[in-house]
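Extended Data, panel c. Modelled sequence:
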Amino acid sequence: MTWHVDDGDLRAYARGELAAPMLWSADAHLMTCGRCREVLASVGEPVDAGWERLDAELDAPRPGLFERLLLRVGVADHLARLLAATPVLRRSWLGAVVAVLVTSVLAAQTADSPTLFLALAPLLPLAGVALSYGPALDPTYEMAVVSPVHGFRLLMIRTVAVLAAGLGLDGLATLALPGYGLRVLAWLLPALALTSTGLALSARLGPVLAPSLVGGAWVTLLLAADAHAHGATATLAPFTALGQGVAAAVAALAGGLLFLSRDRFDRLQGSAV
């Protein structure tokens, strides 16, 4: 054998700094060359470590389209991977949301009232956030638990991503109902109120029970408001000016409670491992 790995490359190999394709050549050569293995041993690097790096490089999953977009806009690679693994940011969930919104928009145009759309739109962000966090509903929960991210910060990262997707789709659906004017935007404050309340209660009740109770309370409120409405086309109480003010106050209060209980999410996260 007349060729050997350069001593400088061996030192880089030992430090884990040798890049492919030279890394692959060095790995193959070290398997058959005792001299180079002795030089490598003198700097304290076992051959198995190089194979482990090579295996990790070959086995690393290739980023998908959504993850590549996140990386392109400057999101850190570990956060991009966590967001890309969020179940409710995948096509199946987003497709279901679009189907629900299309159905409610068509119903609003047929019934000449946006009530169904206004009732359903606030529930979608709440459901999305609930499905994006917690061991019962998130198949990637174990990966999130071992990530070097504070539990509350991880929750907020996923919440912002899910809200951006959910509110964005709600907003696009709103554009399909131009005949109702600003009245069709009455879903926005209730959506923020429901989501923030569900998150605040999740610290004590868990990521399944809390959103379920909040969603049930919203449906109950709408049924009660409908029972006291005057006429089939009357505006329900949650979508009046007073109802919007109450929703804004609830959202602000729940946001404050969520911040105060932020440390509970680390204990909730650790208890489910």
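The two ends are 53 Å apart (CA to CA). This feature is highlighted in the accompanying rendering.
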